[in-house]
Design brief:
This protein is an alpha+beta fold. It is built from eight helices and eleven strands. The longest helix has 27 residues.
Length: 223
């Protein structure tokens, strides 16, 4: 299901997190410290217990392109366990963060004893893949201002708040565009009266109108 129609759960609930805790070690990372680098082949599951984790990669020019920000209950490192693949992104603590690190042998014990954890992670991975494929389609088909509108609406679905505390530079990083392009896209959405300026961010003027705008602009049949 597309997030235009609702958001699927990929955050591990607290009762599942409690099950996982004895199988790993909680490590505290200071803000701006590296959790792992792209290309790392260290197998294990990482779960955010507290704080914010920035996931992204550096370009050839040294600029950082953010992919997402993870918070409590978000997991990463699954591909190292399920497919023996290297880590695809650089993970950095955005704020002081506590991460539950579960090495591969302990992870195998965890899912053998608690198959519901494996079921949750498999479903979460499917949802993440769905979102990644939809994002790739957005990049290929949609104007930047429509991509930005989808990002704003997704933020609303996640927080259930129509006030989104993101700056132009944040939008630029999330979309992989320049700050000038992000500014032009924001201006377009202002002109369409879908959003309005707020200190430190924006506010959705009418959630239902934004939702309908995305349905009309995306031009794909709903899933």
């Amino acid at each position: 299901m597309s997030y235009i129609h609702g958001i699927q759960q990929t955050v591990m609930p607290d009762d599942y997190l409690d099950i996982c805790m004895p199988f790993g070690k909680v490590i505290t990372y200071a803000a701006s410290s590296t959790i792992h680098d792209r290309g790392s082949k260290n197998k294990g599951l990482s779960i955010v217990v507290a704080g914010d984790v920035k996931i992204g990669n550096y370009g050839l020019d040294g600029s950082y392109q953010i992919t997402t920000i993870l918070q409590r209950g978000d997991t990463f490192g699954e591909f190292t366990l399920y497919a023996s693949l290297a880590r695809t992104h650089h993970a950095q603590a955005l704020t002081q963060s506590k991460i539950l690190q579960i090495p591969e042998p302990a992870f195998r014990s965890l899912i053998n004893q608690h198959p519901e954890i494996s079921d949750f992670i498999s479903r979460s991975l499917a949802i993440k893949l769905h979102a990644a494929l939809e994002r790739l389609d957005d990049i290929r088909r949609l104007p930047t201002y429509v991509q930005l509108a989808k990002l704003i609406y997704q933020s609303y679905l996640t927080t259930q708040s129509d006030v989104i505390p993101l700056r132009q530079s944040d939008y630029a990083e999330r979309l992989g565009v320049t700050v000038l392009t992000a500014h032009k896209s924001l201006t377009k959405l202002y002109d369409l009266q879908l959003i309005e300026k707020r200190y430190g961010g924006i506010a959705i003027t009418n959630v239902e109108r934004l939702k309908n705008f995305l349905k009309d602009s995306s031009s794909l049949l709903p899933l």
